[in-house]
Every structure is written in structure tokens, then in C-alpha cells.
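quick one: adenosine-5-diphosphoribose bound model?
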Amino acid sequence: MEHIVVLTGAGMSAESGIATFRDSGGMWEQYRVEEVATPEGFARNPQLVLDFYNARRKAAFDAKPNKGHIGLAEMEKDYKISIITQNVDNLHERAGSTNVVHLHGELDKVRSTADPSLIYTLTPDNCEIRLGDKCEKGSQLRPHIVWFGEAVPMIEEAVDIVRTADILVVIGTSLNVYPAAGLLNYVKSGTPIFLIDPNEVKSYRDDIHFIKKGASEGVEELRRLLN
Ligand code: APR
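yep, here:
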């Protein structure tokens, strides 16, 4: 079975109603990265950061997988599919994908600020954390999110997965954020690369087959092309 590795970004979930980061009207026009997505921001104003992620978590729980997520899940019938996502929502899993690596963390999880191995899963009915919510060892809980300036613990696993790709598909990422954007470097030479995005994406590679469509239509087109 051919191994298709899919690298996804915020555009994958745009058609589910979750805002991207760098498009016009995107998240980083409304919030300052340094305030809500860095360890320094959390140290300065933890309430603001918890509120920000509580709102993101609620939006993610309320959202539904779109045809793109569902199409990728269906492709597991014909291919070995590995998804490496920069997204912190769980829409790939809810669509039925069984092999998903989250590079930048997961919104539905929170962890201890003192012991990163103490991770807890929230539910839609109980999806907020507040100042004073503590782990079993008595330390404040924080979002299980990789903030700017923090290490990306899953990157090595992601590199190993990309190295074994027969086909690489990139969907809905502006390829601005490293190390995720650098994963394209690790495909074996000659591996076909497809990129699905309705907008131009600047990439340092010129061997990419560009499908200039949104995620839902783009995945449909990809399936036609691979058939
Ligand atoms: N379908 C597919 N792609 C889309 C769609 C759509 N319907 N709508 C927009 N896009 C594309 C945009 O054209 C853009 O190229 O999605 C991309 C989104 O880019 P970013 O907002 O930069 O998101 P992403 O690349 O995932 O950001 C990486 O930055 O702030 C962080 O941690 C956050 O994981 C995130 C990382």
C-alpha cells in the first residue's frame, strides 16, 4: 500500500469555520502572538491566555469536520495515510483519520505547568480552564499547546514519517512557521508533492504540483489525480 503523508495547517479547518492565522481577518490580526501564544505572555497575563484558549477550544468543539477532513479519512481504504497537522483542533480524528500527529499540541488537552507528563483531556461540557485549576500535584494547568519559543517535541517523529512518504500532500498552510515548514525537505528525492491551497503559497521548492483550491474541493481533485 502506498504511504501518503499529509501535512495540514489552518486552511484545512477553514471550511469548518475555524479562522486561519495569517489570512486577512485571521487570528493574528485580532490578537498579538506575543500576548497569547508565548510562555512570556502566559507569565505576564495568564488570565488572558487561558481565556484565549478557552474560546478557541469552544469553537473547535462546536466545529464539524469538512469534506476535506472526511475525504482524507476515506482515503485510508486505499492507502496508508499519515497526517501531520499543525492544527490544534481534533477534526481529523473526528472525521475518522486514525493516524494523526499533532505538531503544535491539542486544544482538548491541558497539562500541568510543573510536570508536562500530567496531561488531562477536557470534554465539550467541561471545556474551560481557569486560574486556580490545578493538576494532582497542585500546580496551575495550562493549555497543551506548543507556544512560539517552545520546543516542538513531535518534530522528530514527524521527520521520520515524512522520510517514508511515497507521496507528500500539503494542505492549507502558509509554510511560514518552522520547524513544520521544513518537513518538505525530508522527502526522498523524486517523491511527488501536491499542495492544496486556494491562494499562492511561497515555497522554496519548485517541484510541487499545485492544486489551487480549498481543502474540500482540493482533496476531491487529489483523489481523482491519484486514481
Ligand atoms: N482551504 C485550504 N487552504 C486554505 C483555505 C481553504 N478553504 N482558506 C485559506 N487557506 C490557506 C491560506 O491561503 C494559507 O496559505 O491556509 C493557509 C493558512 O496559513 P496560516 O494562517 O499561516 O496557518 P498555518 O500555516 O497553519 O500556521 C502555522 O502558525 O500561529 C501558528 O501555531 C499556529 O499552527 C499554526 C502555525
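The first strand starts at residue 3 and ends at 8.
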